Amino acid sequence: MSLVLVLTFTALMVAVIPVAHALVIASGIALFWDGNLPLLLVVQQMFHQTQSFPMLALPFFILAGTVIMEGKLGEELLRFSGELMQRVRGGALSTTVVGSVVFGGVSGSAVANASALGSVLIPWQKRQGYPAGLCAANNATSAVIDILIPPSIPMILYAVVSGVSIGDLFIAGVLPGVLMAAGFIAVCWWQARRLNLAPEMPPFDIRHVARLALLATPALILPVLILVALRFGFATPTEIAVMAVLYALAASILIYRDMSWSRFRKAMIDAGIATGIVMMVIMGSAAASWILTYDQVPQHFAAWVSTTLREPWLVILAMNIIMLLIGGPLDLAPAILLLAPIFIPLAQQIGLDPLQLGLMMVLNLGIGLYTPPVGTTLFISSTIAGSTMAETTRALWPFFFVAIALLLAISYIPALTIY
Amino acid sequence: MEQPFHTTPVTLGGEEAVALPASPPRSPLLIAAAKADHGVALVCQGVLLVTGTVLMGVLTANVIARYVLATGGFAWAEEVPEQLFPWFIMAGVALAVQHGGHIAVEWLMGKLDRGGKRVVLLAGHALVVFAYLYLCWQSLIVADIVSIERSPALDLPKTYGYWAIAAGCALLALSTVTVAIRIALIGPEAMPRPSPEEMPT
What we know:
Low-confidence stretches of chain A: none
Order of helices and strands of chain B: HHHH
Helix content of chain A: over 70%
Number of strands of chain B: 0
Largest sheet of chain A: none
Low-confidence stretches of chain B: 5-22
Order of helices and strands of chain A: HHHHHHHHHHHHHHHHHHHH
Number of helices of chain A: 20
Oligomer: heterodimer
Number of strands of chain A: 0
Radius of gyration of chain A: 22 Å
Distance between the termini of chain A: 42 Å
Radius of gyration of chain B: 22 Å
Strand content of chain A: under 5%
């Protein structure tokens, strides 16, 4: 039954049928092929996912991010990031990196981040003399920092599949996110030096910087509030997501005075669509996972890998290679939902903490978002910059190298994620 | 240093943007498809706004109640999301079809000519319509079976949640039909593309 499922799913995916629908249809065909199990199972498994209370955090974290990013608060965040970086060589490029860190604290979507930051910063960076391909590569890779800094939608997905605490995942993502930002800022500095682009040195006005910091504070402290609330158990992650929305709305209405009914309506509908897209994949993968578990595929796979590869470091390397290969053509959400149930038993068998696996998976599949030629942030950034895919890909390699180095560090040094 | 914040945001599109004809031929089928889409969008947007706002209100009230009431929150607070979240999700699922949001691997599209793309897309859409109409029917069967299961606090049957799945599947099928009509009459470039704000990851 599992073989029919996998073959049908692959064929449907190649035939451009959306991943969620391919999962649902392939599950139905596999059950029909077996003949002993009712097709009602597909509906039951799909429905079961809609009853998950932690999943309710998804729409509300998305909504909070949209309210902040599309309003004046997002603009103030970006202005503050630019002010911080403009005196550093490569500062125009680094603004995207720092912007991704601070936007990461309010949004959980790398794709939305790539579009929001890229549309404002890339034209400015090009006018500063940076090549279009480099601006696109910087934007495409930096956007992925967003999903390491809490709140993170991919981490919520992994938490629901694996049973690992959302709060623990959020906390574990902070250090890798900051390390990745540091590595990317170093690349920006090196690129500016190579291109002989010196930073302009406007006079330092402490009052101006303090004013910008004050205006950006409501957004800057949001991730801190989320982490504190999770750490001390003030509320469940879902309730904290709702509080984040109320906080964003309060800041938007009372401080920035830019909230309107039409903005709220659009933000709620966008959050609903994004939730529908993710939840449909979750519902489809639940039916497929049920079939794989019924056939004991994860257990057989774990046993086969551990007897074939034997050494834990080799198993971890193999998992990373598989994720890099799958993360290119397949989007982050379906890749997590399909791979996590198979990799978690394997990780447990070799003594790899599921929390560490979660960070490995989010970062690894995040790299897939800018892996040529099909990465989503790569495509968005190249389109905004007006660069060809070849130009962007050529400029991508230093960033790619930093990301892979961090991935290997996270994979083999537990202290980077479990602290 | 020149500040970046006065620039006009660049809209996505470029060479890959959907290049619809300046004034597409208005056949009766296209007009009917537009009307159907409009109706589905109105219903789904209404469901999203109402369920989203109620969910937000209930969860907020429950957090406040937990710290104020001696009972530690409302007994019914977890049952409301169980009833409403399926409607919120399925409204988003159906609306995502109109926005081209459901994630697909488009490797094959780069290998085919315009006619080939049209055939592949139409065959795929036909399969999706058939599958979800069948799922809609299956959902109604399960809804009937679970009607005897009732929630402890609100005494509501599980049926409503399965109705959400059935309604969502029906609207998804209808939206897929309207996209297929456009692909058949205009071409593969009529496939909708999502905006980045609607991309979840």
